[in-house]
Amino acid sequence: MKILLIGYGKMGRTIAALAQQRGHEIAGIVDSHASEATIADFTPAIADVAIEFTHPDSAFANVTACLRQGLPVVCGSTGWLHHFEEAKALTNEVGGSLFYASNYSVGVNLFFHFNEYIASKMAQFGGYDVAVREIHHTQKIDQPSGTALTTGEGILRHFPTKTTWRNAAAESSAELAIISERKGDAVGTHIVTYSSDVDTLELKHEAHSRTGFALGALLAAEWLPGRQGVFGMKDLLDL
Ligand SMILES: NC(=O)C1=CN([C@@H]2O[C@H](COP(=O)(O)OP(=O)(O)OC[C@H]3O[C@@H](n4cnc5c(N)ncnc54)[C@H](OP(=O)(O)O)[C@@H]3O)[C@@H](O)[C@H]2O)C=CC1
Ligand SMILES: O=C(O)C1=N[C@H](C(=O)O)C[C@H](O)C1
User: Is it the case that residue 30 has pLDDT exceeding 90?
Assistant: First the structure.
């Protein structure tokens, strides 16, 4: 497969290395400082799929540019989901292909699945409070992480005493606290904690490297071409 990489930072470079190991070709790189190419330089004749990991402020424009070029796009950038409905509408308008995940790691997507199951079971019993904690490297721009937001939304769907979230300690029992920590070069850790007066129950995912994110993005890029619409990891993994 010929892959256009949009963003050649920590994720773009990890994906490039793994893509080559899997027999793919890097058709081009679009990056603010590593390349002078633009998305307009790439057509479906040059690239089969684009993989976008850039910045919360640039992801939406990059996604729309790919859709207008007719390029299927796998987007991993977080912090831009206030534009997601517009991206969906454009995908349908142009008959394009968009894949989005706040986290491409297969392990994290299992974590999302178990998180929703645990929330629904814990909601049946009184006496537990629940909170989410995420730990990332100090270069991370958005807060809370996209993964923590997906986790929080999963809890809110199944744990009716929580009706909203706050990126700080909860100020009322209806608020789900999502606590963000920035430490050194931490790749990404997410923890859901249920506590009662008598015990604590935790679900934790800790990424040891970026390889899991890169592998998931490549699995999505291998799966997406030929499918029209908006997709996510539940479609790919059949979760
Ligand atoms: N969904 C998932 O599984 C994962 C998502 N992420 C998300 O992916 C994004 C990127 O993460 P990461 O690779 O660690 O970040 P980096 O900062 O290491 O890399 C981002 C790269 O994109 C470049 N860039 C910025 N704006 C543009 C633009 N408009 N067009 C092209 N290139 C641009 C940056 O250049 P410059 O430095 O000059 O700004 C940089 O080289 C973040 O939003 C992060 O949260 C990260 C890991 C996993
Ligand atoms: O910026 C990162 O590094 C990561 N971002 C994603 C997020 O915001 O959830 C995924 C992963 O945790 C790493």
Answer: yes
For domain 2-104+211-237, give the CATH number.
3.40.50.720
Class of domain 106-206: alpha beta
Q: Which of 117, 105, 77, 125 is nearest to 190 (CA)?
A: 105
Tell me, yes or no, if the pTM score tops 0.95: yes
Q: Taking each helix axis from N to C terminus, what angle separates 211-223 and 10-21, rounded to the nearest 10 degrees?
A: 60
Q: Provide residues with CB under 6 Å of ligand 2.
A: 78, 102-103, 136, 140, 145-147, 188
Our answer to whether residue 136 is catalytic in this structure is yes
* Contacts of 178 by beta carbon, 8 Å cutoff, 6+ apart: 131, 132, 133, 134, 144, 148, 149, 152, 165, 166, 167
Q: Quick check: helix, strand or coil at residue 221?
A: helix
140 catalytically annotated: yes
CA of 136 to the centre of ligand 2 (A): 7
Tens digits of residue pLDDT in 133-162: 999 999 999 999 999 999 999 999 999 999
Q: List all residues whose CB is within 6 A of at least one atom of ligand 1.
A: 6-12, 30-33, 53-56, 58, 62, 76-79, 101-104, 142, 213
